[in-house]
Amino acid sequence: MSLAVLLVFFPVDARAQAVGAQAADSLPAFKSDSAAADPFQKVEAGPSLWSSAPSGPPTSRDSLAAGDSAVRKLRMRYPAVAVYLGVDFMDLDAKEYFNTALNARASGEGLRILQPYEAVHLAFPLGIQALLPVSGYLDVVIKTHSYWYQQKAILGDTASRHAGDATFSAQANLGGLGLRFYVPPPLLSVTGGLGLFAQGVAYWNLGRSELYSDRGSAPARFEPSGSGYEFQFGIQKEVTGPWQLSGAIGFLNQKFTSRKDWSEIIAFSPPAGKAAWGGSALQATLNLWYRFGTPSPRAPADPAKANRAKADQEVPVQAN
What we know:
- With 320 residues, the protein is α+β, with helices and mostly antiparallel strands.
- It contains five helices and twelve strands.
- It has a domain of 222 residues: Porin.
């Protein structure tokens, strides 16, 4: 009796075990590719459920890859040279001496000031600039900065008729050496679409820097410690060819001394001592760059080839 019972119930038990094993194998947790079929992973990596587009927005991995591309292009930059034109909004500290002299002349000669000197001094510097990369985010900068501008006042008699002019001019020819630092693109955006740089340059007098008027001139001396400095900030565009147009804004400070006395360039109420002038300026520049080489673009990836390689790597595990 017991043997018959075993024969009757054993097949049932075996069938139950087979059904249970099949049910267990059908669960995602027991499949070898269950991670690839994870619905949460599909939602995170795939397109939006409400989007009709076949492909969703780039994932974080794609964004980081774009940032890596921007870093690669930045590090593959070549030496470059530029000519630039700028505008300096200057605050010349010596302008008060010339205003005092103008008022003293008008008072001493019984004249009226029909047009005083301008309060804001505008200079339009020209120069050349060269960049020499020395590391992934650093360039050596060699630069010149030259400008000339004139201030003019008009005097008149008591009837406001023209009775003479008063002028003075400032000019400078500077040469500088400095560094340019590029902010790493990943610090600004994971897409690497934005590049910023900061640049500092120390200037020395190259000659023909002077302050002069209709009375005389005061050439500036060469100072071994330098005659000024500047800081500039700008956006680094992607290099796609040898020519590139870019801009920058900055701050300039300069100081000059002369062996001439103030009395040699100012006739009325000159200050005592040797002539000295300088001041600071806000500046904006427009640069036309020529680069001695550009990064070679990387060939675009073949989607079909990438899919085949991915399929070859994902070999399914056969169940025993």
